[in-house]
Design a protein that fits this description.
The protein is an alpha+beta fold.
Length: 175
């Protein structure tokens, strides 16, 4: 796996690590073929080589802009002078606006990657624009710091448990 690329996740990952169905699931097959959504931007974990953090993206920009603005407004109503939202950010992928859903991120290891998101026209892996990548990674790292300090309600699934389980899977071969 390479940081800065987009990936599709295998159904096996969900069967093993998302038994409560809190993550964005793979779409059903359409006309016998995988739908190819959602795709996830992946960046490497700072602490554990072999673990990557997957941030799903969505084309539903208006929906997530409303949620983003609602989160900022709630903070303003509480008197926060400089409200911020680290759980959603916006950027472009292949020239199209996308919402990066940090609130839905989760860890993964390479064996659960089913494929790389490829540009049909150039036959090359789709990558993230450097400015967008900095924004997504910075927000995700801030959310991860909070989650690992015990603020687990920031994200939808138990990413600490999944992280620990994946660390165990990585180290099974070491014994």
């Amino acid at each position: 796996m390479m940081q800065g690329r987009f990936y599709f996740i295998s159904d096996e990952f969900y069967a093993v690590h998302d038994k409560d169905n809190k993550l964005m699931q793979n779409r059903e097959r359409i006309d016998g073929a995988n739908h190819g959504r959602p795709c996830f931007y992946a960046f490497q974990d700072e602490r554990t080589p072999g673990i990557y953090w997957c941030v799903p993206l969505s084309s539903k920009i208006e929906k997530y802009k409303r949620i983003y603005e609602s989160k900022l407004e709630r903070q303003r109503m509480k008197g926060v002078a400089k409200p911020k939202c680290n759980t959603i950010c916006f950027g472009e992928v292949m020239g199209q606006p996308r919402a990066f859903l940090v609130q839905n991120m989760f860890p993964i290891i390479e064996k659960f990657i089913s494929s790389v998101y490829m540009d049909r026209n150039t036959k090359t892996p789709v990558t993230i624009e450097p400015g967008t990548e900095r924004q997504v990674v910075n927000k995700a790292k801030e959310v991860l710091r909070l989650v690992f300090r015990g603020y687990s309600n920031i994200v939808f699934s138990d990413i600490v448990k999944t992280y620990n389980d994946l660390c165990g899977e990585l180290h099974e071969g070491d014994t």
